[in-house]
Amino acid sequence: QVQLVESGGGLVQAGGSLRLSCAASGTIFSKNAVGWFRQAPGKEREFVAGISRIGGNTYYADSGKGRFTISRDNARNTVYLQMNSLKPEDTAVYLCAVAAWIQDITSTPPRTKYWGQGTQVTVSL
């Protein structure tokens, strides 16, 4: 069984930082590209960032460019999303998902295999 568990969310003031983690089990982690997505109340789910199997390629939505950094540690089966200079509009449930290739993460719609349950990020004024 494949399980993805997100952590690291919370309440932070505008301008602050959070680091989210996505820990995977039950899969060969290095055979999966990983993406971060977010969904705010009343809005559609949107792509945030993606990383290829060994981390050689990263992709970001315009919303997070220059503020967010995605990375992975395959030895720990974990992908991270470092979020700096947070804004209230970043408030959302952040979810990670895995796919075979980074192109499956960045496609519209994404061709993902598994999703985590999400972690809440709330950015206050």
Layout: helices, strands, pairs:
Layout: E1 3-7, E2 10-13, E3 18-25, E4 33-39, E5 46-51, E6 58-60, E7 68-73, E8 78-83, E9 92-99, H1 102-106, E10 114-115, E11 119-124
Parallel strand pairs: 2-11
Antiparallel strand pairs: 1-3, 3-8, 4-5, 4-9, 5-6, 7-8, 9-10, 9-11
Low-pLDDT parts are none
How large, in whole angstroms, is the Cα Rg?
A: 13 Å
> Helicity, in percent?
under 10%
Query: How would you describe the shape?
Result: globular
Average pLDDT, all residues: 97
Number-wise, the strands total 11
State which percent range the strand residues make up: over 45%
What is the count of DSSP helices, taking H or I runs of 4+ residues? 1
Q: Alpha-carbon distance between the termini?
A: 40 Å
Quickly give the structural class.
mainly beta
**What does the largest sheet look like?**
7 strands, mixed
Order of helices and strands: EEEEEEEEEHEE
Give a written overview of the molecule.
The chain is mainly β and 125 residues long. Helix content is 4%, strand content 49%. It is built from one helix and eleven strands. Strands 2, 4, 5, 6, 9, 10 and 11 form a seven-stranded mixed sheet that branches. Strands 1-3-8-7 form a four-stranded antiparallel sheet, with no helix packed on it. The longest helix is centred in the C-terminal third of the chain and has 5 residues. It is globular, with a radius of gyration of 13 Å. The protein starts with a strand and ends with a strand. 34% of the residues are buried. The mean pLDDT is 97.
